[in-house]
Write a structure and sequence with these properties.
single chain; 358 residues; alpha+beta; four-stranded mixed beta sheet; 13 strands; 27% helix; binds iron/sulfur cluster
């Protein structure tokens, strides 16, 4: 019998980016001499060959409908050289080879309702996680928080008036993706999960759920003659890690799932070590559709940072210089018992809180 011919596997994963690059970028790859920032939202890169490329950046809402995508692509075809790319903060960038194409491109974007900016010392687009649209465990809608906050920070996106750039992030659960930045707005559960004992036996793989808990607060139990689970609420840190593998352990709650704001996260770079963000505001209402309480706190932090930080200081550098007590004084945010990390593993984690020691 003839040997079966196996089909060639279809590769998946990230495609080779070079095939989509603007030809000028491809030609000068690895051979750029310097770059300039002629105005907010525009970058000019000059290659050793003398060729130059202009980049125009506009914010997008990340979760894009097909009509908006088509509109953005049409602008790229008509006013740019037919190439676009998305940044990790959901901005779209157009590359053009000639300065004379920059102004018509910006006009087309602004006429289309898009905001040009997000470069250098601005508040860049807030990076966010999936929210209610895609994920199965969110306690809030990260995209909605982003939209309502960026509506209020629009001038900080299109102008470069901050001491240094500001990265804001949101995260719609307490344990998974997102949530690290100069300012992070994250979900914060404040009550242990509620268990629907009728469903656990049929839906959850109990050993995996037990293994998932970081503080060993879950154990198997028989409830109403059915296999289920129980939670030692004194141990539970309300992280929500048991909810993804076991949806009957519902942790999201209209009243008790709150937002928390963390400040001062930054990656390491050539000059400094990574810095970890610290909790500065807790128990903020998770209040759709505009989240006014969280937005007000973010605006308050940004205002003080803008007034008090020196040029080039990122938020973490500024707080390192003035100290956390002064940060709370300047921002007027209350320092409460919730800022003190009193978890039993705290011997190892106290340095990650703003807890002030004498
Ligand atoms: S942060 Fe959590 S809830 Fe939000 S998309 Fe990621 S895993 Fe899902
Ligand atoms: S919420 Fe977190 S700490 Fe509490 S039981 Fe679930 S996994 Fe354990």
């Amino acid at each position: 019998m003839a040997q079966l011919q196996h089909r060639t596997p279809i590769e998946s994963g990230c495609p080779d980016g070079f095939q989509y690059m603007h030809p000028l970028m491809l030609k000068n790859f690895g051979n750029w001499k310097y770059h300039e920032h002629p105005r907010p939202g525009v970058l000019r890169h000059i290659a050793n060959s003398g060729e130059e490329i202009w980049t125009v950046r506009a914010g997008t809402q990340r979760i894009l409908d097909v009509f908006t995508l088509r509109k953005l692509c049409d602008i790229g075809d008509q006013y740019a050289d037919g190439h676009v790319r998305f940044t990790i903060r959901s901005n779209i960038e157009y590359m053009v080879s000639d300065e004379s194409k920059v102004d018509p491109l910006i006009k087309a974007l602004e006429d289309g309702g898009f905001i040009v900016g997000g470069t250098a010392n601005s508040v860049a687009m807030i990076s966010h996680t999936q929210g209610w649209l895609h994920c199965d465990i969110p306690g809030t809608d990260a995209s909605g928080v982003v939209k309502s906050m960026m509506d209020e920070l629009i001038d900080e996106f299109r102008n470069c008036t901050m001491p240094n750039r500001v990265h804001i992030t949101t995260s719609c659960c307490q344990i998974n993706c997102g949530g690290q930045g100069d300012i992070a707005i994250n979900i914060q559960h404040t009550k242990p999960p509620k268990i629907n004992h009728d469903l656990v036996g049929n839906v959850c793989e109990r050993p995996s759920v037990v293994a998932r808990c970081p503080v060993a607060a879950i154990r198997p139990a028989m409830v109403n003659n059915k296999p289920s689970l129980e939670v030692d609420e004194k141990k539970c840190i309300c992280c929500g890690a048991c909810y993804p593998p076991c949806p009957p352990m519902q942790i999201n709650d209209a009243e008790h799932s709150k937002l928390a704001i963390w400040v001062g996260g930054n990656h390491s770079n050539a000059r400094s070590k990574p810095s970890f963000q610290k909790l500065v505001a807790a128990g903020i209402p998770n209040n759709p559709p505009r989240w006014p309480e969280a937005t007000a706190i973010v605006k308050r932090i940004l205002k003080v940072y803008k007034e008090d930080a020196r040029d080039w200081e990122r938020i973490n550098d500024w707080i390192d210089r003035i100290g956390w007590p002064r940060f709370f004084e300047l921002t007027g945010l209350p320092f409460t018992k919730f800022h003190i990390d009193n978890w039993r593993g705290a011997r190892k984690s106290l340095n990650a809180s703003t807890y002030i020691r004498f």
